[in-house]
Amino acid sequence: MRVPLNWLADYVDLPAETDPHALAAEFAAVGLEEEDFFGPEITGPLVVGRVLELVKEEHSNGKTVNWCRVDVGPEHNEAQDDPKDPQPGPEVPSRGIICGAHNFVPGDLIVACLPGAVLPGDFKIAARKTYGHKSDGMICSAKELGLGEDHDGIIVLKNLGLSGEPGDDAIALLGLDQVTLDVNVTPDRGYQLSMRGIAREYAQMKGQSFTDIGSPTVAEVNAPTDDGFPVVIEDSNPINGVVGCDQFTALQVTGLDPAATTPFWMQRRLIAAGMRPISLTVDVTNYVMLELGQPLHAYDTALLGEEIVVRRAQAGEKLTTLDGVERTLDPEDLLITDRGGKGGKIIGLAGVMGGADVEVGETTTDVVIEAAHFDPISIARTARRHKLSSEASRRFERGVDPLLGPVAARRCADLLVELAGGTLSPATTQVGQAPEPTVIELPVKRVDSLVGVDYTTAEVTGLLEGIGAGIEVIGKDRLAVTVPSWRTDITADVDLIEEVARTGGYDRIPSIQPAARAGQGMTEAQRTRRRISNLLAADGFTEVLSYPFTNDKRDDQLRLEADDVRRKHVRLANPMSEDLPLMRTTLLLTLVDLVVRNQGRGAKDVALFEAGLVSTSAGLPEGPGPRHLPGYHPSDDELEAIYASVPHQPYHYAGIISGNAEMPGVWGKGRKAEATDVIDTVRRIAETNGLEVTVEADQIAPWHPGRAAKFVLADGQTLGHAGELHPKACENLGLPARTVAFEIDLDALLAQEDLRAWDGALSTYPVSRQDVALIVDADLPAQTLAATLREGAGEELELLETFDLYTGDQLPAGKKSLAFRLTFRAPDRTLKADEASAMREAATKLAAERHGAEVRS
């Protein structure tokens, strides 16, 4: 919110010598942080001048200029020594200035910028020879002084309603010495988007009395009549049970002078506040909005139908707004329309921007002034849906005082009558009722306990009365606080306590480091993530982070099947890049990009891992879920529908090794990464977390069909996959051949019972080891055979290791030999060789029964 300090001084006692920077610091103490300063941009002599004589000269370039004699006051006039220059008389000193504008005549008071002055944009003025004369300065237009966009002619003071004498300081006369402070208004304090709101904050801060210019109790308002302009509210689609428009005030002003222009003082204030003057009627509505905080709209009565109708849009309806853009409307959009007579059209996007069909123009003489109160949620959604943030929508979506409409409408009408000579009709429309004031009970001791400052009851009462609240003492140290109508953000006692802390000064709140609350340390999920990350880092992996956005093309590059659940992406409504509109369903979709980038930077041996969330739309209900959260605490059914529409987001770990797994050096030639490297990595991740996994051969993209493994947990869940990436996938992605990768689901791992918790006792007796080699089918996984041996060996089996794999001519076709070492230990005795052999034979017997295994001699 831009706050011109000379405008602020109309409502509070603001000393002329106020330091803007000190004022900004004081505002920051009550939550209004300074964003910027807009101060004087003109230095040097800028004075009032009177045109004494004007000679038109035509030049060979086809341009006609005026050679002027300008009286700029005794301090600035200089005698002219150019013999070609016309002489107004020896008793009237003056300066000679060339000017290309033609909207002035001799005798007019103008604004002259003399040599040595600097205009906005670091435009330095100096005397110079031009068009055969020495031009000793410049006659200024509004644009050159930063007073607007008008550059068709120079400033003539009488046209601005100003007067003065030659030599007067034009900087002060035009208000170019004023400072504007730009403050940051937080979204919950919409009332601060007005001079009324800022003035109230200043008065509270300085302990001054404040006369509320926007309260119905101090401002003159029109009583509603039966003959006001007809207005009907037809909200057939209320959002969360709240109608989009609960109040609508309309006043009529007739007989306006179409030629009336906005006075300079109003234009100056609008420009200083960051708005562009347009026309008198529009400027008045904007001025009142900036002054009071109530957005207004004026319609040309001659272009309106017989009545105004407030309703929701119908699907497919279109509206051309005042910015000239045709917009396709949504059924949630709230509209201002008319019907009857010349009606039947959309005349505005409620609370956001008016339509072009009933725009006030150069011939408008009669207007209807609208001052309505709209639902903040409805306006916010419409503004965002159409990417149309306006000054009006910024205020409505933050909450406008529901009592302000009649006051603002009357203030606007009075200004139009004063400045354009119109007549205010007594016919007044007022539809809807203002809400009852909110009353909140506040224990004073609760203020002390939450803020940490020992406030007295009188101090709390004074601070809350300063924000406009009504106070009633209802018991010892208990107050009944009537919330002011413009403070829609105050709904509970904690909000009142926040106001006490804010207006009482944040600097009074002590800075005390709170004692650390006793806790349990990291959660089990955090400890697990740390274990896995430490293991991978110790193995030479480097942790990286990639953006979680992808596209359908990446699914094709990884050769995912058409019905693969990993193709069910969540599509972003507003993606950071149009090329990446989807959320990843696996980490490998985005991790491969970082591998390729490192390879492109010359890192030929890369081992990267990433931990993060993935998203999938698989399992979501058909159709979209709730599009918007309600403006109140949802019911259980609403919460269930909301949560059901949220995509599943499991936490994954993924890693890729490209190039060497063991680096070459004086110790050897090194070794390329193989599928067994990442398979062993996943096995050790499970082992580190006290879990047993079953390793099975699998065929799943993007892995090589003969060099990929699936890891199955004890409860049947799939932990993940690991192996060598498919050669075609490597080719599609630009990865080196034989690149290996793994990806696991951490959520599935965390759902398992940690087998490291053991309540037994370590045996002190020696072990007994037995070796056995078994001939089995070549396609039988070693993990499956090992599980059978472990089951058959019994409880005394302490360790089972696979130490040899043989395939060769000494075995039948389609067979392989797997050698195992079985380590037995009893908890209460030393096992005899016969006992250990018997347990080994029991294990091999079960393997023979289930898998046709034969003992290899």
UniProtKB/TrEMBL annotation:
Its EC number is 6.1.1.20. Binds 2 magnesium ions per tetramer. Residues 435-511 form the B5 domain. It catalyses: tRNA(Phe) + L-phenylalanine + ATP = L-phenylalanyl-tRNA(Phe) + AMP + diphosphate + H(+). It is an enzyme of class 6 (ligase). GO terms for molecular function: ligase activity. It is found in: Cytoplasm. InterPro entries: aa-tRNA-synth_II/BPL/LPL, B3/B4_tRNA-bd, DNA-bd_dom_put_sf, Fdx_antiC-bd, Fdx_antiC-bd_sf, NA-bd_OB-fold, Phe-tRNA-ligase_IIc_bsu, Phe-tRNA-ligase_IIc_bsu_bact. Residues 74-85 have a biased composition (Basic and acidic residues). Mg(2+) binds at residues 489, 495, 498-499. Keywords: Aminoacyl-tRNA synthetase, ATP-binding, Cytoplasm, Ligase, Magnesium, Metal-binding, Nucleotide-binding, Protein biosynthesis, RNA-binding, tRNA-binding. SMART domains: B3_4, B5, FDX-ACB. Residues 763-856 form the FDX-ACB domain. Its cofactor is Mg(2+). Signal peptide: none annotated. Residues 74-95 are annotated as: Disordered. Residues 40-168 form the TRNA-binding domain. It holds the Pfam family tRNA_synthFbeta. Tetramer of two alpha and two beta subunits. PANTHER family: PHENYLALANINE--TRNA LIGASE BETA SUBUNIT, PHENYLALANYL-TRNA SYNTHETASE BETA CHAIN AND LEUCINE-RICH REPEAT-CONTAINING PROTEIN 47. NCBIfam families: pheT_bact (TIGR00472). Belongs to the phenylalanyl-tRNA synthetase beta subunit family. Type 1 subfamily. HAMAP family: Phe_tRNA_synth_beta1. This is Phenylalanine--tRNA ligase beta subunit. It comes from Brevibacterium picturae.
